[in-house]
UniProtKB/TrEMBL annotation:
Source organism superkingdom: Bacteria
Pfam families from the UniProt entry: AMP-binding, AMP-binding_C
Location of the AMP-dependent synthetase/ligase domain: 33-404
Cited InterPro entries: AMP-bd_C (IPR025110), AMP-bd_C_sf (IPR045851), AMP-binding_CS (IPR020845), AMP-dep_synth/lig_dom (IPR000873), ATP-dep_AMP-bd_enzyme (IPR050237)
Signal peptide: none
Protein known as: (2,3-dihydroxybenzoyl)adenylate synthase
AMP-binding enzyme C-terminal domain location: 456-532
Length: 550
Protein backbone atom coordinates (compact mmCIF):
# COMPACT_ATOMS: atom_id res chain seq x y z
CA UNK A 1 0.00 0.00 0.00
CA UNK A 2 1.37 3.36 -0.95
CA UNK A 3 0.97 6.11 1.60
CA UNK A 4 -0.61 8.25 -1.14
CA UNK A 5 -3.44 5.70 -1.39
CA UNK A 6 -4.62 6.67 2.10
CA UNK A 7 -6.94 9.70 2.12
CA UNK A 8 -6.05 12.00 5.04
CA UNK A 9 -8.40 14.32 6.91
CA UNK A 10 -7.95 17.96 5.80
CA UNK A 11 -5.09 19.60 7.76
CA UNK A 12 -7.27 22.06 9.69
CA UNK A 13 -9.78 19.34 10.66
CA UNK A 14 -6.93 17.13 11.85
CA UNK A 15 -5.51 20.02 13.87
CA UNK A 16 -8.91 20.54 15.51
CA UNK A 17 -9.15 16.84 16.45
CA UNK A 18 -5.69 17.08 17.99
CA UNK A 19 -6.53 20.33 19.85
CA UNK A 20 -9.70 18.85 21.32
CA UNK A 21 -7.72 15.88 22.61
CA UNK A 22 -9.51 13.33 20.42
CA UNK A 23 -6.26 12.41 18.74
CA UNK A 24 -3.32 11.55 20.96
CA UNK A 25 -0.62 11.64 18.30
CA UNK A 26 0.77 8.27 19.38
CA UNK A 27 0.80 4.70 18.14
CA UNK A 28 -1.78 2.33 19.61
CA UNK A 29 0.97 -0.17 20.39
CA UNK A 30 2.17 2.15 23.15
CA UNK A 31 -0.98 1.13 25.06
CA UNK A 32 0.43 -2.34 25.52
CA UNK A 33 2.92 -1.41 28.22
CA UNK A 34 0.62 1.23 29.72
CA UNK A 35 -1.72 -1.70 30.42
CA UNK A 36 1.02 -4.09 31.51
CA UNK A 37 2.49 -1.53 33.92
CA UNK A 38 -0.94 -0.93 35.42
CA UNK A 39 -2.58 -4.35 35.35
CA UNK A 40 0.45 -6.66 34.89
CA UNK A 41 -0.73 -9.86 36.57
CA UNK A 42 -4.43 -9.54 35.77
CA UNK A 43 -5.82 -11.85 33.09
CA UNK A 44 -5.99 -10.10 29.72
CA UNK A 45 -6.94 -12.91 27.34
CA UNK A 46 -8.61 -16.29 27.78
CA UNK A 47 -8.82 -18.91 25.03
CA UNK A 48 -9.96 -22.25 26.42
CA UNK A 49 -7.22 -23.48 28.73
CA UNK A 50 -4.90 -20.76 27.54
CA UNK A 51 -4.66 -17.61 29.69
CA UNK A 52 -2.40 -14.60 29.23
CA UNK A 53 -1.81 -11.88 31.80
CA UNK A 54 -1.31 -8.30 30.63
CA UNK A 55 2.43 -8.69 31.20
CA UNK A 56 2.60 -11.92 29.22
CA UNK A 57 0.56 -10.35 26.44
CA UNK A 58 2.90 -7.36 26.24
CA UNK A 59 5.99 -9.58 26.24
CA UNK A 60 4.66 -11.93 23.58
CA UNK A 61 3.48 -9.06 21.39
CA UNK A 62 6.90 -7.42 21.71
CA UNK A 63 8.56 -10.74 20.89
CA UNK A 64 6.46 -11.03 17.76
CA UNK A 65 6.90 -7.37 16.81
CA UNK A 66 10.63 -8.07 16.79
CA UNK A 67 10.04 -11.34 14.94
CA UNK A 68 8.04 -9.63 12.20
CA UNK A 69 10.98 -7.30 11.64
CA UNK A 70 13.31 -10.31 11.39
CA UNK A 71 10.94 -11.71 8.72
CA UNK A 72 11.69 -8.60 6.69
CA UNK A 73 8.48 -6.71 7.45
CA UNK A 74 8.92 -2.99 7.85
CA UNK A 75 6.69 -0.25 9.26
CA UNK A 76 3.93 0.48 6.76
CA UNK A 77 4.06 -3.03 5.25
CA UNK A 78 0.67 -4.72 5.00
CA UNK A 79 -0.14 -8.30 6.11
CA UNK A 80 -3.39 -10.16 5.57
CA UNK A 81 -4.53 -11.68 8.85
CA UNK A 82 -6.95 -14.58 8.51
CA UNK A 83 -7.32 -16.23 11.89
CA UNK A 84 -10.26 -17.60 13.85
CA UNK A 85 -10.91 -16.18 17.33
CA UNK A 86 -7.89 -17.39 19.26
CA UNK A 87 -5.28 -15.93 21.63
CA UNK A 88 -2.76 -15.78 18.78
CA UNK A 89 -5.05 -13.35 16.92
CA UNK A 90 -4.76 -10.91 19.82
CA UNK A 91 -0.97 -11.21 19.96
CA UNK A 92 -0.65 -10.78 16.17
CA UNK A 93 -2.86 -7.68 16.18
CA UNK A 94 -0.98 -6.04 19.03
CA UNK A 95 2.41 -6.98 17.59
CA UNK A 96 1.44 -5.33 14.31
CA UNK A 97 0.29 -2.17 16.11
CA UNK A 98 3.56 -2.13 18.03
CA UNK A 99 5.77 -2.65 14.96
CA UNK A 100 3.80 -0.35 12.65
CA UNK A 101 3.03 -3.32 10.39
CA UNK A 102 -0.54 -2.93 9.11
CA UNK A 103 -2.91 -5.92 9.41
CA UNK A 104 -5.86 -6.34 7.04
CA UNK A 105 -8.62 -8.01 8.99
CA UNK A 106 -9.85 -10.90 6.82
CA UNK A 107 -12.45 -13.47 7.88
CA UNK A 108 -11.80 -17.22 8.24
CA UNK A 109 -14.58 -17.78 5.68
CA UNK A 110 -12.77 -15.79 2.98
CA UNK A 111 -11.23 -17.75 0.13
CA UNK A 112 -8.98 -17.20 -2.95
CA UNK A 113 -11.17 -14.52 -4.39
CA UNK A 114 -11.26 -12.27 -1.32
CA UNK A 115 -7.68 -12.90 -0.18
CA UNK A 116 -6.36 -12.62 -3.73
CA UNK A 117 -8.10 -9.39 -4.67
CA UNK A 118 -7.45 -7.67 -1.34
CA UNK A 119 -3.88 -8.99 -1.19
CA UNK A 120 -3.14 -7.56 -4.63
CA UNK A 121 -4.91 -4.28 -3.90
CA UNK A 122 -2.91 -3.53 -0.74
CA UNK A 123 0.31 -5.23 -1.95
CA UNK A 124 0.38 -7.56 1.03
CA UNK A 125 3.87 -8.60 2.13
CA UNK A 126 2.72 -11.54 4.25
CA UNK A 127 -0.27 -13.79 4.86
CA UNK A 128 -1.09 -14.90 8.40
CA UNK A 129 -3.23 -18.06 8.43
CA UNK A 130 -4.02 -21.05 10.63
CA UNK A 131 -2.54 -24.35 9.38
CA UNK A 132 -6.08 -25.58 8.92
CA UNK A 133 -9.43 -24.57 10.28
CA UNK A 134 -12.75 -26.43 10.22
CA UNK A 135 -11.35 -28.98 7.80
CA UNK A 136 -10.03 -26.37 5.37
CA UNK A 137 -6.31 -26.17 4.58
CA UNK A 138 -5.63 -22.43 4.94
CA UNK A 139 -1.90 -22.94 4.67
CA UNK A 140 -2.31 -24.45 1.20
CA UNK A 141 -4.59 -21.57 0.21
CA UNK A 142 -1.96 -19.08 1.42
CA UNK A 143 0.80 -20.93 -0.44
CA UNK A 144 -1.17 -20.83 -3.71
CA UNK A 145 -1.79 -17.13 -3.26
CA UNK A 146 1.78 -16.39 -2.26
CA UNK A 147 2.94 -17.95 -5.52
CA UNK A 148 0.75 -15.68 -7.63
CA UNK A 149 0.50 -12.39 -5.75
CA UNK A 150 2.87 -9.60 -6.77
CA UNK A 151 5.85 -9.36 -4.41
CA UNK A 152 5.46 -13.04 -3.39
CA UNK A 153 4.28 -12.50 0.23
CA UNK A 154 5.57 -14.74 3.05
CA UNK A 155 3.24 -17.29 4.61
CA UNK A 156 3.14 -17.05 8.41
CA UNK A 157 1.32 -20.03 9.91
CA UNK A 158 -0.32 -20.47 13.31
CA UNK A 159 -0.64 -24.13 14.30
CA UNK A 160 1.12 -27.43 14.90
CA UNK A 161 1.66 -28.28 11.22
CA UNK A 162 3.78 -25.52 9.77
CA UNK A 163 5.06 -26.63 6.38
CA UNK A 164 8.66 -26.15 5.28
CA UNK A 165 9.25 -22.73 3.78
CA UNK A 166 6.57 -21.07 5.89
CA UNK A 167 7.18 -19.19 9.14
CA UNK A 168 6.03 -20.75 12.44
CA UNK A 169 4.28 -17.76 13.97
CA UNK A 170 3.86 -19.28 17.42
CA UNK A 171 7.62 -19.68 17.67
CA UNK A 172 7.97 -15.96 16.99
CA UNK A 173 5.56 -15.13 19.80
CA UNK A 174 7.94 -16.22 22.55
CA UNK A 175 8.70 -13.51 25.10
CA UNK A 176 12.04 -11.81 24.36
CA UNK A 177 15.11 -12.90 26.36
CA UNK A 178 15.29 -9.45 27.95
CA UNK A 179 11.84 -7.84 27.69
CA UNK A 180 13.01 -4.42 28.87
CA UNK A 181 15.64 -4.18 26.12
CA UNK A 182 13.13 -5.15 23.41
CA UNK A 183 10.56 -2.80 24.89
CA UNK A 184 12.98 0.12 24.81
CA UNK A 185 14.00 -0.65 21.25
CA UNK A 186 10.41 -0.89 20.02
CA UNK A 187 9.51 2.30 21.91
CA UNK A 188 11.99 4.24 19.80
CA UNK A 189 10.29 3.04 16.60
CA UNK A 190 6.70 3.74 17.71
CA UNK A 191 4.38 4.62 14.80
CA UNK A 192 2.90 8.11 14.67
CA UNK A 193 -0.75 8.85 15.35
CA UNK A 194 -1.46 9.58 11.70
CA UNK A 195 0.08 6.30 10.48
CA UNK A 196 -2.20 3.44 9.33
CA UNK A 197 -3.08 1.13 12.24
CA UNK A 198 -5.45 -1.47 10.75
CA UNK A 199 -7.19 -2.01 7.44
CA UNK A 200 -10.82 -3.08 7.67
CA UNK A 201 -12.96 -4.46 4.87
CA UNK A 202 -16.02 -2.47 4.01
CA UNK A 203 -19.36 -4.18 3.67
CA UNK A 204 -18.73 -3.27 0.05
CA UNK A 205 -21.21 -2.51 -2.69
CA UNK A 206 -18.91 -2.68 -5.69
CA UNK A 207 -16.99 -5.44 -7.39
CA UNK A 208 -13.81 -3.61 -6.32
CA UNK A 209 -12.19 -4.15 -2.93
CA UNK A 210 -13.13 -1.41 -0.51
CA UNK A 211 -10.57 -1.17 2.24
CA UNK A 212 -10.89 1.27 5.12
CA UNK A 213 -7.65 2.55 6.60
CA UNK A 214 -8.00 3.33 10.29
CA UNK A 215 -5.16 5.39 11.74
CA UNK A 216 -3.68 4.97 15.21
CA UNK A 217 -5.18 8.34 16.17
CA UNK A 218 -8.70 7.63 14.96
CA UNK A 219 -9.02 4.00 16.04
CA UNK A 220 -7.62 4.77 19.49
CA UNK A 221 -10.19 7.55 19.87
CA UNK A 222 -13.01 5.32 18.55
CA UNK A 223 -12.15 2.71 21.17
CA UNK A 224 -11.97 5.22 24.04
CA UNK A 225 -15.42 6.57 23.12
CA UNK A 226 -17.01 3.14 22.87
CA UNK A 227 -15.45 1.91 26.12
CA UNK A 228 -17.11 4.91 27.80
CA UNK A 229 -20.48 4.35 26.07
CA UNK A 230 -20.51 0.72 27.25
CA UNK A 231 -19.23 1.35 30.77
CA UNK A 232 -16.36 -1.14 30.38
CA UNK A 233 -13.88 -1.28 33.26
CA UNK A 234 -11.40 -3.61 34.96
CA UNK A 235 -14.26 -5.84 36.12
CA UNK A 236 -15.46 -6.42 32.53
CA UNK A 237 -15.20 -9.96 31.20
CA UNK A 238 -16.04 -9.67 27.50
CA UNK A 239 -16.75 -12.68 25.32
CA UNK A 240 -15.81 -12.37 21.63
CA UNK A 241 -17.77 -14.83 19.52
CA UNK A 242 -18.33 -12.89 16.31
CA UNK A 243 -15.27 -13.06 14.03
CA UNK A 244 -12.55 -11.02 15.73
CA UNK A 245 -11.59 -9.43 12.42
CA UNK A 246 -14.93 -7.66 12.37
CA UNK A 247 -14.77 -4.08 13.60
CA UNK A 248 -17.60 -4.92 16.02
CA UNK A 249 -15.85 -7.73 17.95
CA UNK A 250 -12.40 -6.25 17.44
CA UNK A 251 -12.83 -2.75 18.76
CA UNK A 252 -16.42 -1.68 19.46
CA UNK A 253 -15.66 -2.19 22.31
CA UNK A 254 -14.83 -5.82 21.59
CA UNK A 255 -11.46 -7.29 22.39
CA UNK A 256 -9.40 -4.11 22.16
CA UNK A 257 -11.94 -2.08 24.14
CA UNK A 258 -11.80 -4.67 26.91
CA UNK A 259 -8.02 -4.39 27.04
CA UNK A 260 -8.24 -0.57 27.04
CA UNK A 261 -10.47 -0.90 30.12
CA UNK A 262 -8.26 -3.41 31.96
CA UNK A 263 -10.83 -6.20 31.67
CA UNK A 264 -10.55 -9.77 30.45
CA UNK A 265 -11.24 -10.70 26.81
CA UNK A 266 -12.43 -14.27 26.36
CA UNK A 267 -12.24 -15.51 22.77
CA UNK A 268 -14.36 -18.28 21.31
CA UNK A 269 -14.36 -19.24 17.65
CA UNK A 270 -18.08 -19.93 17.37
CA UNK A 271 -21.36 -18.34 18.49
CA UNK A 272 -23.01 -21.76 19.05
CA UNK A 273 -25.18 -21.45 22.17
CA UNK A 274 -23.87 -24.64 23.85
CA UNK A 275 -20.29 -23.38 23.72
CA UNK A 276 -21.22 -19.77 24.50
CA UNK A 277 -23.20 -20.48 27.66
CA UNK A 278 -20.64 -22.95 28.98
CA UNK A 279 -18.03 -20.19 28.73
CA UNK A 280 -20.37 -17.49 30.07
CA UNK A 281 -20.83 -19.59 33.23
CA UNK A 282 -17.21 -20.75 33.56
CA UNK A 283 -15.58 -17.34 33.04
CA UNK A 284 -18.36 -15.25 34.62
CA UNK A 285 -18.75 -13.25 31.40
CA UNK A 286 -20.26 -9.79 31.94
CA UNK A 287 -20.68 -8.58 28.34
CA UNK A 288 -20.78 -9.92 24.82
CA UNK A 289 -21.84 -8.84 21.35
CA UNK A 290 -23.88 -10.48 18.65
CA UNK A 291 -25.77 -9.95 15.43
CA UNK A 292 -29.57 -10.39 15.68
CA UNK A 293 -29.62 -13.92 14.19
CA UNK A 294 -27.10 -15.11 16.77
CA UNK A 295 -28.92 -13.50 19.66
CA UNK A 296 -32.12 -15.23 18.52
CA UNK A 297 -30.41 -18.62 18.68
CA UNK A 298 -29.14 -17.77 22.19
CA UNK A 299 -32.62 -16.80 23.38
CA UNK A 300 -34.08 -20.04 22.10
CA UNK A 301 -31.35 -21.98 23.90
CA UNK A 302 -31.73 -20.15 27.20
CA UNK A 303 -35.50 -20.65 27.15
CA UNK A 304 -35.09 -24.43 26.83
CA UNK A 305 -31.91 -25.19 28.79
CA UNK A 306 -30.73 -24.73 32.32
CA UNK A 307 -27.94 -22.16 31.93
CA UNK A 308 -26.21 -19.82 34.33
CA UNK A 309 -26.32 -16.28 32.98
CA UNK A 310 -26.15 -14.54 36.36
CA UNK A 311 -22.85 -12.85 35.49
CA UNK A 312 -24.13 -11.31 32.23
CA UNK A 313 -24.83 -7.57 32.42
CA UNK A 314 -24.86 -6.33 28.82
CA UNK A 315 -25.32 -7.75 25.39
CA UNK A 316 -24.51 -5.53 22.40
CA UNK A 317 -26.63 -6.27 19.35
CA UNK A 318 -26.10 -4.78 15.90
CA UNK A 319 -24.89 -5.33 12.36
CA UNK A 320 -28.35 -5.88 10.91
CA UNK A 321 -31.95 -4.99 11.66
CA UNK A 322 -33.30 -5.96 15.07
CA UNK A 323 -37.09 -5.95 15.35
CA UNK A 324 -38.34 -3.93 18.37
CA UNK A 325 -40.41 -6.94 19.58
CA UNK A 326 -37.29 -9.09 19.64
CA UNK A 327 -35.33 -6.27 21.26
CA UNK A 328 -37.89 -6.12 24.08
CA UNK A 329 -37.44 -9.86 24.82
CA UNK A 330 -33.64 -9.93 24.88
CA UNK A 331 -33.13 -8.43 28.35
CA UNK A 332 -35.73 -10.55 30.17
CA UNK A 333 -34.64 -13.75 28.41
CA UNK A 334 -30.89 -13.38 28.83
CA UNK A 335 -31.11 -11.71 32.23
CA UNK A 336 -29.12 -8.65 31.17
CA UNK A 337 -29.49 -5.26 29.51
CA UNK A 338 -29.57 -4.83 25.76
CA UNK A 339 -27.44 -2.19 24.10
CA UNK A 340 -28.21 -1.77 20.43
CA UNK A 341 -25.37 -0.72 18.17
CA UNK A 342 -25.35 0.73 14.70
CA UNK A 343 -21.85 0.75 13.36
CA UNK A 344 -19.66 0.40 10.32
CA UNK A 345 -16.07 -0.36 9.40
CA UNK A 346 -15.97 3.13 7.85
CA UNK A 347 -16.21 4.73 11.29
CA UNK A 348 -19.39 6.03 12.90
CA UNK A 349 -20.56 3.99 15.90
CA UNK A 350 -23.87 4.56 17.72
CA UNK A 351 -24.84 2.85 20.97
CA UNK A 352 -27.97 3.01 23.06
CA UNK A 353 -26.83 4.15 26.53
CA UNK A 354 -26.32 1.51 29.25
CA UNK A 355 -29.18 3.04 31.24
CA UNK A 356 -31.48 3.87 28.29
CA UNK A 357 -35.23 3.82 28.89
CA UNK A 358 -37.26 1.25 26.97
CA UNK A 359 -38.28 3.33 23.93
CA UNK A 360 -34.66 4.33 23.35
CA UNK A 361 -33.22 0.85 24.03
CA UNK A 362 -35.79 -1.15 22.07
CA UNK A 363 -36.73 1.06 19.14
CA UNK A 364 -33.53 2.92 18.24
CA UNK A 365 -30.03 1.92 17.20
CA UNK A 366 -28.38 4.42 19.49
CA UNK A 367 -26.60 7.73 19.77
CA UNK A 368 -23.24 8.58 18.22
CA UNK A 369 -20.47 7.77 20.70
CA UNK A 370 -18.50 10.99 20.15
CA UNK A 371 -19.76 14.56 20.56
CA UNK A 372 -17.70 15.35 17.44
CA UNK A 373 -19.59 12.88 15.23
CA UNK A 374 -21.59 14.79 12.61
CA UNK A 375 -24.77 13.26 11.20
CA UNK A 376 -26.82 14.61 8.31
CA UNK A 377 -29.95 13.03 6.83
CA UNK A 378 -30.52 13.90 3.17
CA UNK A 379 -33.03 13.18 0.42
CA UNK A 380 -32.23 11.65 -2.97
CA UNK A 381 -31.07 15.06 -4.24
CA UNK A 382 -28.72 15.49 -1.29
CA UNK A 383 -30.87 18.12 0.47
CA UNK A 384 -31.28 17.86 4.26
CA UNK A 385 -34.68 16.40 5.14
CA UNK A 386 -36.89 18.14 7.74
CA UNK A 387 -36.25 17.08 11.38
CA UNK A 388 -37.45 13.51 11.99
CA UNK A 389 -37.76 12.69 8.27
CA UNK A 390 -36.32 9.58 6.63
CA UNK A 391 -33.33 9.94 4.31
CA UNK A 392 -29.83 8.70 3.63
CA UNK A 393 -27.41 9.15 6.51
CA UNK A 394 -24.23 11.09 5.77
CA UNK A 395 -21.57 11.27 8.44
CA UNK A 396 -18.10 12.59 9.21
CA UNK A 397 -16.05 12.88 12.35
CA UNK A 398 -12.81 12.15 14.19
CA UNK A 399 -12.87 8.39 13.51
CA UNK A 400 -14.62 8.30 10.12
CA UNK A 401 -11.90 8.41 7.43
CA UNK A 402 -12.40 10.50 4.29
CA UNK A 403 -11.91 7.80 1.66
CA UNK A 404 -11.17 4.13 0.90
CA UNK A 405 -7.64 2.98 0.09
CA UNK A 406 -6.52 3.49 -3.51
CA UNK A 407 -9.92 3.92 -5.24
CA UNK A 408 -10.23 7.63 -6.13
CA UNK A 409 -13.09 6.99 -8.56
CA UNK A 410 -15.21 5.22 -5.95
CA UNK A 411 -14.29 7.82 -3.34
CA UNK A 412 -15.57 10.64 -5.55
CA UNK A 413 -18.98 8.93 -5.49
CA UNK A 414 -19.10 7.70 -1.91
CA UNK A 415 -17.72 10.83 -0.21
CA UNK A 416 -19.05 14.32 -0.85
CA UNK A 417 -16.76 17.23 -1.63
CA UNK A 418 -17.22 18.36 2.00
CA UNK A 419 -15.92 15.00 3.24
CA UNK A 420 -19.24 13.43 4.24
CA UNK A 421 -19.38 9.63 3.95
CA UNK A 422 -22.58 8.41 2.30
CA UNK A 423 -23.53 5.42 4.47
CA UNK A 424 -26.11 4.09 2.01
CA UNK A 425 -28.42 3.56 5.01
CA UNK A 426 -31.87 5.11 5.25
CA UNK A 427 -32.46 6.42 8.75
CA UNK A 428 -34.42 8.91 10.77
CA UNK A 429 -33.19 10.72 13.86
CA UNK A 430 -35.30 10.92 17.01
CA UNK A 431 -35.60 14.24 18.89
CA UNK A 432 -32.84 12.98 21.26
CA UNK A 433 -30.57 12.43 18.23
CA UNK A 434 -30.78 8.63 18.20
CA UNK A 435 -30.55 6.81 14.88
CA UNK A 436 -33.41 4.58 13.72
CA UNK A 437 -32.39 2.46 10.72
CA UNK A 438 -35.27 2.34 8.22
CA UNK A 439 -33.74 0.65 5.18
CA UNK A 440 -30.94 1.23 2.72
CA UNK A 441 -30.18 2.52 -0.73
CA UNK A 442 -26.92 0.60 -1.21
CA UNK A 443 -26.79 -2.49 -3.33
CA UNK A 444 -25.91 -5.27 -0.95
CA UNK A 445 -27.34 -8.23 0.90
CA UNK A 446 -26.99 -8.22 4.69
CA UNK A 447 -26.84 -11.95 5.49
CA UNK A 448 -27.00 -12.16 9.27
CA UNK A 449 -24.60 -9.21 9.57
CA UNK A 450 -22.22 -10.44 6.83
CA UNK A 451 -22.39 -8.00 3.94
CA UNK A 452 -22.48 -9.41 0.41
CA UNK A 453 -21.87 -7.02 -2.47
CA UNK A 454 -24.49 -7.72 -5.15
CA UNK A 455 -22.10 -6.46 -7.82
CA UNK A 456 -19.36 -8.87 -6.76
CA UNK A 457 -21.72 -11.84 -7.14
CA UNK A 458 -23.22 -10.54 -10.40
CA UNK A 459 -19.81 -9.96 -12.02
CA UNK A 460 -18.84 -13.59 -11.40
CA UNK A 461 -22.23 -14.97 -12.48
CA UNK A 462 -22.09 -12.94 -15.68
CA UNK A 463 -18.91 -14.81 -16.64
CA UNK A 464 -20.85 -18.09 -16.82
CA UNK A 465 -21.46 -19.04 -20.47
CA UNK A 466 -25.16 -19.72 -19.88
CA UNK A 467 -25.91 -16.30 -18.42
CA UNK A 468 -27.08 -13.30 -20.43
CA UNK A 469 -27.95 -11.04 -17.50
CA UNK A 470 -27.90 -11.39 -13.70
CA UNK A 471 -29.11 -9.54 -10.61
CA UNK A 472 -28.43 -10.49 -6.97
CA UNK A 473 -30.98 -9.19 -4.45
CA UNK A 474 -31.84 -9.74 -0.79
CA UNK A 475 -34.47 -12.36 -0.05
CA UNK A 476 -36.17 -12.14 3.35
CA UNK A 477 -35.23 -14.87 5.81
CA UNK A 478 -36.64 -15.51 9.29
CA UNK A 479 -33.26 -16.47 10.75
CA UNK A 480 -30.59 -14.45 8.96
CA UNK A 481 -32.77 -11.48 7.98
CA UNK A 482 -31.66 -11.76 4.37
CA UNK A 483 -30.07 -14.26 2.02
CA UNK A 484 -28.80 -13.86 -1.55
CA UNK A 485 -31.33 -14.53 -4.30
CA UNK A 486 -30.05 -14.58 -7.86
CA UNK A 487 -32.22 -13.66 -10.83
CA UNK A 488 -30.84 -14.64 -14.25
CA UNK A 489 -31.83 -14.38 -17.86
CA UNK A 490 -30.16 -17.17 -19.82
CA UNK A 491 -28.94 -17.31 -23.40
CA UNK A 492 -31.40 -19.07 -25.70
CA UNK A 493 -31.38 -22.83 -25.32
CA UNK A 494 -29.25 -22.85 -22.14
CA UNK A 495 -30.20 -24.14 -18.71
CA UNK A 496 -28.81 -23.56 -15.22
CA UNK A 497 -29.61 -24.63 -11.68
CA UNK A 498 -28.63 -23.35 -8.25
CA UNK A 499 -26.13 -26.13 -7.51
CA UNK A 500 -24.21 -25.41 -10.70
CA UNK A 501 -24.09 -21.70 -9.96
CA UNK A 502 -22.83 -22.35 -6.43
CA UNK A 503 -20.24 -24.86 -7.62
CA UNK A 504 -18.99 -22.46 -10.31
CA UNK A 505 -18.64 -19.55 -7.86
CA UNK A 506 -16.95 -21.79 -5.30
CA UNK A 507 -14.43 -22.84 -7.96
CA UNK A 508 -13.73 -19.17 -8.54
CA UNK A 509 -12.82 -18.86 -4.86
CA UNK A 510 -15.83 -16.94 -3.57
CA UNK A 511 -16.54 -17.22 0.18
CA UNK A 512 -19.44 -19.58 0.93
CA UNK A 513 -21.56 -16.95 2.72
CA UNK A 514 -21.81 -14.98 -0.54
CA UNK A 515 -23.19 -17.85 -2.61
CA UNK A 516 -26.77 -17.43 -3.87
CA UNK A 517 -29.30 -19.50 -1.94
CA UNK A 518 -32.11 -19.23 -4.45
CA UNK A 519 -32.03 -19.03 -8.24
CA UNK A 520 -34.87 -17.60 -10.27
CA UNK A 521 -34.58 -17.98 -14.04
CA UNK A 522 -36.65 -15.37 -15.87
CA UNK A 523 -37.40 -14.67 -19.53
CA UNK A 524 -36.60 -10.98 -19.01
CA UNK A 525 -35.37 -8.83 -16.13
CA UNK A 526 -37.26 -5.62 -15.34
CA UNK A 527 -35.14 -2.50 -15.87
CA UNK A 528 -35.07 1.00 -14.39
CA UNK A 529 -35.26 4.16 -16.49
CA UNK A 530 -31.45 4.17 -16.80
CA UNK A 531 -31.40 0.58 -18.07
CA UNK A 532 -30.12 -1.19 -14.94
CA UNK A 533 -31.91 -4.25 -13.53
CA UNK A 534 -34.72 -2.99 -11.28
CA UNK A 535 -33.50 -4.49 -7.99
CA UNK A 536 -36.37 -3.02 -5.98
CA UNK A 537 -38.92 -4.84 -8.09
CA UNK A 538 -36.91 -8.04 -8.00
CA UNK A 539 -36.57 -7.85 -4.22
CA UNK A 540 -40.33 -7.38 -3.94
CA UNK A 541 -40.88 -10.29 -6.26
CA UNK A 542 -38.75 -12.69 -4.27
CA UNK A 543 -40.28 -11.45 -1.00
CA UNK A 544 -43.66 -12.34 -2.50
CA UNK A 545 -42.38 -15.77 -3.59
CA UNK A 546 -41.01 -16.44 -0.09
CA UNK A 547 -44.22 -15.26 1.60
CA UNK A 548 -46.26 -17.63 -0.57
CA UNK A 549 -43.71 -20.46 -0.21
CA UNK A 550 -43.34 -20.93 -3.96
C1 LIG B 1 -29.40 -2.22 10.88
N1 LIG B 1 -28.31 -2.24 10.07
C2 LIG B 1 -27.10 -2.16 10.65
C3 LIG B 1 -28.12 -2.06 12.86
C4 LIG B 1 -24.98 -2.04 11.12
C5 LIG B 1 -20.56 -2.45 15.31
C6 LIG B 1 -21.77 -2.92 14.85
C7 LIG B 1 -21.95 -3.22 13.51
C8 LIG B 1 -20.91 -3.06 12.60
C9 LIG B 1 -21.14 -3.41 11.18
C10 LIG B 1 -19.69 -2.57 13.05
C11 LIG B 1 -26.94 -2.06 12.05
N2 LIG B 1 -29.31 -2.14 12.23
N3 LIG B 1 -28.06 -2.00 14.20
O1 LIG B 1 -18.64 -2.36 12.23
O2 LIG B 1 -18.32 -1.82 14.83
C12 LIG B 1 -25.58 -2.23 8.68
C13 LIG B 1 -25.67 -0.87 8.01
C14 LIG B 1 -24.24 -0.39 8.05
C15 LIG B 1 -23.48 -1.69 7.79
C16 LIG B 1 -22.05 -1.68 8.23
C17 LIG B 1 -19.51 -2.27 14.41
N4 LIG B 1 -25.61 -1.99 12.31
N5 LIG B 1 -25.86 -2.15 10.12
O3 LIG B 1 -22.15 -4.02 10.83
O4 LIG B 1 -19.05 -2.47 8.20
O5 LIG B 1 -26.11 -1.07 6.69
O6 LIG B 1 -20.21 -2.96 10.30
O7 LIG B 1 -23.95 0.59 7.08
O8 LIG B 1 -19.97 -4.81 8.61
O9 LIG B 1 -24.23 -2.67 8.52
O10 LIG B 1 -21.51 -2.97 8.11
P1 LIG B 1 -20.09 -3.35 8.75
Amino acid sequence: MKRADVVPWPAETAAAYRDTGCWRGRGMGSRLWEWADRWGERTAVVDGEHRLTYRELAERADGLADGLTRCGLEPGDVVLVQLPNCWEFVVVTLACLRAGVVPVMMLPTHRERELGSIGAHVQARALVVPDSWRGYDHQALAERLAATLPGRPRVLTVGDHVRAGNVDLRALMRPPADPSVTRARLDTREPQGSDPAVLLLSGGTTGLPKVVCRTHDDYDYNIRCVVRACGFGPDTVYLAVLPAGHNFALANPGILGTLYAGGTAVVLPSPRPEAVFAVVAAERVTATSAVPSVVLSWMEHVATHDVDVTSLRHVHVGGSVLAPEVAARIGPTLGCRLQQVYGMAEGLICYTPVDADEPLAHATQGLPVSPYDELLVVDAEGRPVPAGGVGELLTRGPYTPRGYVGVPGTNAQVFTSEGWFRTGDLVRLTPEGAVVVCGRVKDLVNRGGEKVSSAEVELLVQELPQVAEAAAVPMPDPVLGERVCLFVRLHAGRSLDLDRVRAALTRRGLAAFKLPERLVVVAALPHTAVGKPDKKRLAHLVAHLVAHRD
